């Protein structure tokens, strides 16, 4: 994130995002969503043909769900950026704080599903490592643990962030053309209480 020091001109932070950034975000997110539907369709066809689905394929579907929702969040963030006036001199200079539910929701979605995607990728890598020699399927307990790690931990972190009011607009000066962690936070945040 850009830090505004005493000698920072707010105008220096304006227009850090150009149209190429937006086009690449829209194209990348759209292709990710399209790819997700292709994977879902292939999974459906495989299932209908009676072929068994192994664990890694199931984990890949869960990873795809996380990536698809993350792409929806990025897509909505880019669309929001095109229609917003986050980066006005007044808002950046005053670090204007406002409650925009759409921005907070988009921030929640991309934070939650971005972390879930990371955790699913990590779980798949560890699962492949652990089962390389042993071809037996995972136990139900291990699979439930995987789901707790990949969905539960990101949910807890993101819910804590939204409850402490730290998600929202960063005035397009730090994270890009989408909402993430608000640029207008106090220097300290009370974690308990």
TrEMBL record:
Subcellular location(s) of the protein: Membrane
- Name one process (GO BP) from the record: cell surface receptor signaling pathway
What's an example GO cellular component term for this entry?
Answer: plasma membrane
Q: Where is the G-protein coupled receptors family 2 profile domain?
A: 19-193
| Keyword check for Lipid biosynthesis | no
Q: Which GO terms describe its molecular function?
A: G protein-coupled receptor activity
Alphabetic keyword roster: Membrane, Transmembrane, Transmembrane helix
Q: Which SUPFAM superfamilies match?
A: Family A G protein-coupled receptor-like (SSF81321)
Kindly give the InterPro entries that the UniProt entry links to this protein.
Answer: GPCR_2-like_7TM, GPCR_2_secretin-like
**Regions crossing the membrane:** 22-45, 57-79, 108-132, 144-162
Which Pfam family would be a valid example here?
A: 7tm_2
| Name used for this protein in its record | GPR157
Provide the topology term for how it sits in the membrane: Multi-pass membrane protein
Organism domain of life? Eukaryota
Q: What is its main location?
A: membrane
Q: Does the keyword Transmembrane apply?
A: yes
């Amino acid at each position: 994130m850009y830090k505004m020091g005493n000698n920072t001109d707010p105008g220096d932070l304006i227009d850090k995002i150009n149209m190429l950034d937006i086009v690449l975000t829209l194209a990348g997110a759209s292709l990710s969503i399209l790819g997700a539907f292709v994977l879902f369709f292939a999974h459906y066809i495989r299932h209908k043909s009676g072929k068994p689905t192994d664990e890694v394929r199931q984990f890949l579907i869960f990873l795809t769900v996380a990536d698809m929702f993350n792409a929806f969040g990025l897509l909505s963030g880019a669309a929001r950026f095109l229609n917003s006036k986050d980066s006005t001199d007044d808002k950046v200079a005053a670090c204007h704080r406002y409650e925009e539910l759409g921005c907070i929701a988009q921030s929640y979605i991309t934070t939650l599903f971005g972390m879930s995607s990371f955790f699913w990728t990590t779980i798949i890598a560890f699962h492949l490592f652990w089962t390389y020699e042993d071809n037996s399927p995972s136990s139900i307990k291990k699979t439930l643990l995987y789901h707790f790690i990949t969905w539960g931990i990101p949910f807890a972190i993101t819910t804590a962030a939204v409850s402490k009011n730290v998600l929202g607009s960063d005035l397009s000066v730090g994270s890009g053309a989408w909402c993430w962690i608000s640029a207008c936070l106090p220097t300290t945040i009370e974690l308990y209480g």
